[in-house]
């Protein structure tokens, strides 16, 4: 009886939108979909919304993807497996091919749900939690769900206090004293408009006097169904949310914790580095609310003679470096003698060596060589960097692209599968 009772709480399902190309995260997204990009040395970005859902006792999850789907499909199948003792389901939905051979692609967040609505509405729930596949946060969605039911809201938007600079890049909400939404505007720039949306009541931080939408929504089933039919446009934030707000019965759930939208190379880099030095980033050391990911079955890192400061060294790594400072060193990273790494993010590797097939274009061994200096660099999976290499951005470039090297916001990026030859300097 206790088991059956616990299942009755699953009156909400998560729908995770993981289909974007992530053009602003290029070149990391040249070989991965954005939700499949490695984060924190051992996770994928898609693990964050799934883990928050599971930790909130939401076990009916749909992931919608369409770009470089094979990697994310493999990761989900290897990581999230339900059974009779841990009931639930996780479905991956991708563009389908018509009998004519035409493949129907998704043109936006709302369009992705609309084109999969029959499958999504098979879930026996009265509420749907809509999430992005590329955001970082630790949220108890059950609290948001209880808030939505208490307010009897057709739409509940997760929001957080933001400063004026951040208000200009987000959707901004105006709420009444009971947390119902009175007005909404997308990315306001004019001072007069911003003034109208300034929150009068205290949000716990005087500098953060605006309410920004986090792009996290809870819809009543009937409201979502009616909205998708009424407004045929393709995007939630730009189109359907303003339409729903005009219909009323929308509330704002105010969240005061950590949240980051991984939209650019800089935000991705900063979010990784924050894990090494700060307690205000994503919580990954919470045993009660873990971030789930694929079981890697790797030994602990082997470290020989290196001086390591403010860094994370993930499992399976073999470190013979001279010095590692303020860096994220991902799974199976191998760093040879006398090498110095500062303020860098190594995404790690899925294997230690490349496949033996003749057609493989990957380096034979994934490692960073001897006597090499690497500063403020993101190194994607399956890269080999030779001996006596310097990656220090000597010319202080802000933006740059070549076959092997890219720079964004002063951060060097080496994309997957690249070999940097001995003695190379940049």
Please count the beta strands (DSSP E, at least 2 residues each). 30
Strand content: 25-35%
Structural class estimated from helices and strands: alpha/beta
* Assigned CATH superfamily of the largest domain: Spore Coat Polysaccharide Biosynthesis Protein SpsA, Chain A
Given the structure, what is the number of helices?
11
Radius of gyration: 23 Å
Helix amount: 10-25%
Q: What is the level-2 CATH architecture name of the largest domain? A: Alpha-Beta Complex
Topology:
Elements: H1 2-7, E1 12-17, E2 38-39, E3 43-44, H2 47-55, E4 60-64, H3 69-79, E5 89-93, H4 109-114, H5 117-120, E6 127-132, E7 135-137, H6 141-151, E8 155-162, H7 164-167, E9 171-175, E10 181-186, H8 191-196, E11 210-220, H9 221-230, H10 236-246, E12 250-254, E13 259-261, H11 265-277, E14 302-303, E15 307-309, E16 312-313, E17 318-319, E18 323-325, E19 328-329, E20 334-335, E21 340-342, E22 345-346, E23 373-375, E24 377-379, E25 384-385, E26 390-391, E27 399-401, E28 406-408, E29 411-414, E30 419-420
Parallel strand pairs: 1-4, 1-6, 4-5, 8-12, 14-17, 15-18, 16-19, 17-20, 18-21, 19-22, 21-23, 22-24, 23-26, 24-29, 25-30
Antiparallel strand pairs: 2-3, 6-11, 7-13, 8-11, 9-10, 9-11, 27-28, 28-29
């Amino acid at each position: 009886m206790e088991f059956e009772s616990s299942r009755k709480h699953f009156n909400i399902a998560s729908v995770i939108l993981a289909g974007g190309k992530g053009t602003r995260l290029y070149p990391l997204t040249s070989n991965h979909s954005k939700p499949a990009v490695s984060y924190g040395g051992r996770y994928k970005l898609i693990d964050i919304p799934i883990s928050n859902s599971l930790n909130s006792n939401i076990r009916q999850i749909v992931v919608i993807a369409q770009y470089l789907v094979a990697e994310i499909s493999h990761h989900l199948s290897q990581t999230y497996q339900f059974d009779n003792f841990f009931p639930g389901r996780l479905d991956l939905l991708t563009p389908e091919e018509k009998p004519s051979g035409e493949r129907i692609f998704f043109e936006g967040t709302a369009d992705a749900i609309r084109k999969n609505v029959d499958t999504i509405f098979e879930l026996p729930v009265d509420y749907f939690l809509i999430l992005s596949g590329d955001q970082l946060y630790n949220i108890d969605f059950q609290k948001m769900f209880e808030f939505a039911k208490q307010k009897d809201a057709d739409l509940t938007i997760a929001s957080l206090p933001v400063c004026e600079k951040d208000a200009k890049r987000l959707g901004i909400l105006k709420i009444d004293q009971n947390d119902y939404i009175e007005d909404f505007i997308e990315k306001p720039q004019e001072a007069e408009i911003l003034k109208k949306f300034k929150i009068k009541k205290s949000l716990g931080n005087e500098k953060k006097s605006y309410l920004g939408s986090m792009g996290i929504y809870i819809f009543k089933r009937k409201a979502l169904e009616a909205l998708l039919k009424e407004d045929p446009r393709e995007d939630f934030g730009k189109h359907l949310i303003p339409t729903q707000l005009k219909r009323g019965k929308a509330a704002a759930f105010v969240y005061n914790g950590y949240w980051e939208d991984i939209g650019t190379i800089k935000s991705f880099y900063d979010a990784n580095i924050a894990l090494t030095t700060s307690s205000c980033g994503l919580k990954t050391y919470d045993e009660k609310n873990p971030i789930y990911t694929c079981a890697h079955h790797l030994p602990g890192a082997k470290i020989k003679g290196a001086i390591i400061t403010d860094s994370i060294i993930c499992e399976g790594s073999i470190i013979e470096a001279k010095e590692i400072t303020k860096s994220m060193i991902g799974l199976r990273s191998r760093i040879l003698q006398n090498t110095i790494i500062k303020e860098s993010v190594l995404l790690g590797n899925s294997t230690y060596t490349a496949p033996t097939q003749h057609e493989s274009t990957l380096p034979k061994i994934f490692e960073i060589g001897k006597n090499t200096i690497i500063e403020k660099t993101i190194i994607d999976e399956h890269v080999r960097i030779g001996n006596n290499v310097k990656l220090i951005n000597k010319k202080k470039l802000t933006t740059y692209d070549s076959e092997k090297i890219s720079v964004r916001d002063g951060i060097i990026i080496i994309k997957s599968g690249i070999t940097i030859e001995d003695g190379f300097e940049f």
